[in-house]
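Hi everyone, sorry if this is the wrong subforum. Our group has a chain we'd like a structural model of before ordering constructs, and none of us has done structure prediction before. Sequence below.
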Amino acid sequence: MEAQTLNFRCGCFVKYWADGELQSALACCADHEAPNQTLENILSSNRELVIDHKYIPPAPRPTLDEELAMAATKYPDIAAHKGFANLFNAGTVVEFTLPLSSAWNKKSTKIGFLLPPGYPSNPPGGPGLIGFWSDADLRTSYGAWPNKTALRYVEWNSEERLVHFGTLQAWNPNHDTILTYARTIDLALNRGST
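Answer:
Right subforum, don't worry. Here is the predicted structure as C-alpha cells:
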C-alpha cells in the first residue's frame, strides 16, 4: 500500500495510507498537534493549509521596516526610534497614538514600548515587568489610576510617562510582530483589562 503525505504551511506534515488511514504525523503547532487524529479531522479543520501535497517552506519573517509598514495600516503614526544605546541596553523604541474608548479621561494617548536585544526571539517590553508606557496623565473616566501602573521617567526622551507593568502570556517569534503587540496593548486598554 502506498503512503501519501500532506504538508502544511506551518511545516507540519501528515502521512497516511492510500485507504485514508493515518500512518504518522509530525506536528509543530497546536493546530496539527494530534497524532491520533483521523485524516478526515485534519483535512476538515485545515483544508486551506494543504498545498497540493507538496512542502512549501514558510515565508521569511518580515524585516523591522516591513513590520512597521504592516502596523501602520492600523496605527498610521507608528514609528521606531533606533540607536538609543543607553536605553535599557537596547536600541529601538516604538511609539504610536492609540485612540481610547470612553472608559478613559482622554480620547487618545501616545503609547511606547521597547524592542529588546534579540527581538523577535525576545518579545517586546522593557526591563523587569515593564510592558509599555502611555501619557503620564492617563486615568480612567472616573479619575482612577489604571491597575499595575506607576509614573516613571522614560530614559530615551526624559519625559515622565505612565508605565504599565505586565508581560505577554504568549509570544511566537515566528508569527507575532509589532502589530501583534500593538493590538495586544489596544485590547488591554480598550477592553478594560488594565
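For your construct planning: Residues 46 and 61 are 22 Å apart (CA to CA). DSSP finds three helices and nine strands in the chain.
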